[in-house]
Amino acid sequence: MQPIVSVKDVKFSYPAGVSALKGVSLQVGQGERVALLGPNGSGKSTLILLIAGLLMPTKGSVEVFGQSTASKDFQKFRSRIGVVFQDPDDQLFTPSVIEDIEYGPKNLKLPAEDVAARSAHVLEKMGIAHLRDRAPHRLSFGEKKKVSLATALVLKPELLILDEPTANLDLVSRRGLIDTLNELNEAGTTVIVSKHDVEAFPELADRVIVISHGCLLGE
After folding, report:
1. Best exposed site among 63, 123, 127, 161 by fewest CB in 10 Å?
2. Could you tell me whether strands 159-163 and 190-195 are parallel, antiparallel, or unpaired per DSSP bridges?
3. Are 131 and 84 spatial neighbours (Cβ–Cβ below 8 Å)?
4. Which pLDDT value is given to residue 32?
5. What is the pLDDT of residue 201?
6. More confident of the two residues 174 and 19
7. Are 201 and 208 in contact (CB under 8 A)?
8. Residue 1 above 70 pLDDT?
9. Spatial separation of the C-alpha atoms in residues 4 and 56, rounded to whole Å
10. CA pair distance 171, 183, nearest whole angstrom
11. What is the DSSP letter of 188?
12. Quick one: pLDDT at residue 120?
């Protein structure tokens, strides 16, 4: 079976000359729960952005759903990928929660009734229906985290990528997030999470990939 994600000898350097990844190779199969473990600055976030197609490798290749992220055709696959950034303020940018959640489906030009149904479902699922008309910048960090996850889930992604998803969440929010991710995985969604500590890993991942100083140390 072809892997859903294939990273081959990927190197990446930022414009200032900082080498973030130094020849990383890995594969993720359909339906897996994979965790990327490493300290801050290890290259985890860069790898996530490369897998999502938001950055292009300096050398090597990244394929998702059998398609190179560098190809023009990859745009067709973006709706199948959900990305949740570490800082929800990087993800929320409209005047209200509902506008943020509806942005993705509307951008895909889905029918209005489909957009409304999907949005209502994810608001209820995440327990944030009461926040629908609130301004994102007035929410607590935990509420913002839930909304940012909702903006990804509303697209019904086949691949969900999350950067430090449990960081700065209280115990109740952390438990709810873990349960939601595992329900999605049981329904067939492939999940990739990055974390800098091992807390909650047994509940979040079946496989751990260790990254340090831009290199893959092992699994």
Report:
1. 127
2. parallel
3. no
4. 94
5. 67
6. 19
7. yes
8. no
9. 18
10. 18
11. T
12. 94
DSSP H helices in the chain:
44-51, 97-107, 112-125, 141-153, 171-186, 201-204
b/e map 147-161, b = 16+ CB within 10 Å:
bbbbbbbbbbbbbbb
Count of C-beta atoms within a 10 Å radius of residue 197: 11
Reading the block at residue 157, the tokens are: 């992604």
Our separate counts of H helices and E strands in the chain read: 6, 10
Q: Tokens 């973006």 label which residue?
A: 78
Q: Which pLDDT score, from 0 to 100, does residue 28 have? A: 96
Q: Tell me the Ramachandran region of residue 37: left when phi exceeds 0, alpha when psi lies from -120 to 50, beta otherwise.
A: beta
DSSP lists the bridge partners of residue 159 as: 81, 190
- Measure Cα distances from 25 to 22, 176, 209 in Å: 10, 32, 11
For the segment 151-198, what is each residue's pLDDT rounded down to a tens digit? 999 998 999 999 988 877 778 778 888 888 888 899 999 999 998 767
What does the pLDDT read at residue 171? 81
